[in-house]
Amino acid sequence: MPGFRRRPLPSSHATPEQREHEQGEQQRRQSRAPFRWPWSLLIGLIILAVAALIPLSGDAATLHTWTLILMFAALAQSWNFLGGFTGYASFGNVFFFGVGAYSTGLLLLAGYSFWLGLLIGAVVAGLLAFLLGLPVLRLRGHYFAIATLGIAEATRELVAIRNIGGSGGEVELPLPVLSDTAFYFLFWLLALVCFLVTAYLLRSKPGYALIAIRESEETAEAMGIPTYWYKIGAFVLSAVPTALAGGLYAYWSTGFDPPTVFDVGISVEMVLLTVLGGAGTLLGPLISAILFELLSFQFQISGSAFHNSLLGLTIAIVTIFIPKGLVGLGQEFFRPLAPGMSHRQLLVEGVRRVRRVIAANGV
């Protein structure tokens, strides 16, 4: 009838051609929404570009704070490769941070260059991740988390008892030849590389395979995905940049000990930053690292005696009320709903589309 538009058919009764057109329209709407892949990539690159200007401030305290921000952004993004994409929550990633620190520090004391120590630390961490992953990644859930935590704690005690590097495992390094600004840009480069690797995983066959493992490992195996080896690959990928961050931190700080570089609190912060920002997302670890570290710094300079309590309360509030993280909140807020389709229908159709993409790409 004139003046009336025909109501679109529900997705379950639409023809294949109509469903294909509907999916295309939905994809175009989503591609224009904030926090989707192309926009997340652009926003993240802008944030990192602005961060590259921080040294121009000339303020030592600001430079120090932002160096830590970039370090934890890289650490959180590294943890995201395993925990965010596969759903395997490791509480022992600090083990690789310590391996990188001690490899770099001990080689420096032996007269080798910092760059060689950094490289060897990354290689050793990658090999250890591969070897440890063979038995550990056969575990799931809290068993895997406890196993990784146990490895980190046992290593911390062993290094201290064996006096590796010095009394109680303490290592004192000579003053670095690099300036604080040079260290800042090394951490910035590491954060940038981790960010770009995440962007690649979100649009690649390996990334689809890791996400399939997170959603349902049994289904992924039934589809022919070699889940065991993909998990080991993610474990190695997570370990290498973590070790690089540890090596950079060791030389930057000019001294460290087991309680510092094998501190389980570093692992916890990696997990928290990823979860608070949004596990498995591109922007989440970067945004949460900036907000969390700036908030922490603000509490410290305010002289609050309840620094840790305030941070813990902030984390609890965000975790309870924003379970999908800050980026997840943004995605929900800007989610474009197609006409005539419910949120549940969109979700079901999205799951089907992801499965078809995985199968079509022959992951």
From TrEMBL:
Topology term for the membrane: Multi-pass membrane protein
Segments of skewed composition (Basic and acidic residues): 16-28
Keyword presence, Nucleotide-binding: no
GO cellular component terms, A-Z: plasma membrane
Any Pfam family: BPD_transp_2
Lineage: Bacteria, Bacillati, Chloroflexota, Ktedonobacteria, Thermogemmatisporales
GO MF terms held by the record: branched-chain amino acid transmembrane transporter activity
Protein name: Branched-chain amino acid ABC transporter permease
Ranges annotated as spanning the membrane: 37-57, 63-82, 94-112, 118-136, 143-161, 181-202, 232-252, 272-297, 309-327
Keyword annotations from UniProtKB, A to Z: Cell membrane, Membrane, Transmembrane, Transmembrane helix
NADP among keywords: no
InterPro entries: ABC_transp_permease, LivM-like
Compartments (UniProt record): Cell membrane
UniProt region (Disordered), positions on chain: 1-31
Organism: Thermogemmatispora argillosa
PANTHER family: HIGH-AFFINITY BRANCHED-CHAIN AMINO ACID TRANSPORT PROTEIN BRAE, HIGH-AFFINITY BRANCHED-CHAIN AMINO ACID TRANSPORT SYSTEM PERMEASE
